[in-house]
């Protein structure tokens, strides 16, 4: 039996040796799937072989089976201790997005190898601990020299760009030579964080040129890889265009990137979010389609916390614009639970309440937030004041604004309060706002002088507030109060002629004698005379009067001028035309220049009796003048055959002139003719 066991052991050892050589050969060729099969056969021979277990874990990692590899590690914890397999375990946790677990695994390792330090830097970057990450990469670059130096520098520049973008930290010059397109791209991102958009665009163009040049030397690059790299650069270019206000160009470039269908879900989510921000409350249907790209699987592991937060804010706003009130409340409440001190969630909730005409409830919500978070109370109270103004409650809005202590003395706040109080005709409150702001600057001035032990002149803001207060008081008739402000200004600057003139003008209405005394301080007209070139001033651009230059006289015109000398021709006045019926013996009508309706003798138009009688009475009835309406009875109608016995009547009435054809006697007839002649000859000037 012992001999048989020895023979079997020898056969097993020979098989294991053959399998190990197979594993080695497959590993060198990169065929990890086949190597994994050989390792499994080895483990069948020796299930607790540490080397075989390590090889199995490596093969699974190379094949992308991180979960299975981590399962092997956790199953054989007695054999695969943290000292043996720390890097592989931390790497699996990192790839499975278990970042906190990966950090614990790295920190628990007894020996910090270079591989663990590299992974430690990546973990810190994902956790957004940029200061620690920067220190880790600096240490790596300082203490290592191998073929991965360029990658470390790229990662270092990415950390600096993240600090500039998300933490608004001014990046320090690391002295990195921008020899690759990755370094140029990261440098552009850092410039965007600083607000240097034009320089950032140039860096991105340089990065694109570097990438296209590098394609000449790269043979195994696919078309998809090229499009993916360029899409990232072009997406950042479109973002700069959007920040610069070129939204149409940015939108066009964003849509071009989406049509390429890149595999990077993080890039697609960011581009979709930026398109939604361009659309705002317009083109809502397109925004609802784009928002689906932000919900892709794995997006939360590709973007930073602030990027994810911005996307969620825009989802809530989109729900509000599409009248999805419940969805808007749900999203904003979720955001508020994640970031209790953030302003946007409560502002979105208040906006949704305002859309539902619940303004009082919105103001109450904002007031509760301001009470719970005093640090952010200023911005919330500004929103509350805006809501009150929209409701027409100007006085309440002023009360809210005056409760913001850190903004009371600001010139913009003072101007807004004075304008609103003036609108409400509350002049006393407006003057009180000026007084409080001036007192604040005086107290601040006293504290500064006390601590510095050096007298400092009053600030320009302080003096400008005093001047504005004086002007306001003068405008609203508070002359005595304005005089004290003007005297304060004149004491600060006795050479200010404008202030002195205002002071004299104010005193002239209150105390003329004092005004006379102060007028002696005005400079004389000689001292105020300025050396002005009148000709240059008249010929300057924008002058209201320009002296015409005399044209040069040549030839006959010059001789005529010499012959005439100083004699000037007098223009003859043309005689006015007189009306044709003008009679010099008759005195003209003194009211002839007035319209007919305004003359004293105008009696109005005479209404015809026949017109008044037409259509009156019951249907079928006749009036006294109905015979006159008969056309057959008029003098102008042709004669008809007489009826028997009617000849006498016809002959009797044939010589009678009807009233319509009778001319009025005397003046009325001539007056009508004169009126007609005046209308025809109205241009005669009589």
TrEMBL record:
Residues 632-649 have a biased composition (Low complexity). TPR repeats lie at residues 231-264. This is Signal recognition particle subunit SRP72. It is found in: Cytoplasm; Endoplasmic reticulum. Keywords: Coiled coil, Cytoplasm, Endoplasmic reticulum, Repeat, Ribonucleoprotein, Signal recognition particle, TPR repeat. InterPro entries: Signal_recog_part_SRP72_RNA-bd, SRP72, SRP72_TPR-like, TPR-like_helical_dom_sf, TPR_rpt. PROSITE patterns: TPR. SUPFAM superfamilies: TPR-like. GO terms for molecular function: 7S RNA binding; ribosome binding. GO terms for cellular component: endoplasmic reticulum; signal recognition particle, endoplasmic reticulum targeting. Residues 568-578, 670-686 have a biased composition (Basic residues). GO terms for biological process: SRP-dependent cotranslational protein targeting to membrane. Its main location: cytoplasm. Residues 547-686 are annotated as: Disordered. The gene is Srp72. Belongs to the SRP72 family. Residues 99-154 form a coiled coil. Residues 548-604 form the Signal recognition particle SRP72 subunit RNA-binding domain. Residues 580-601 have a biased composition (Basic and acidic residues). It comes from the Eukaryota.
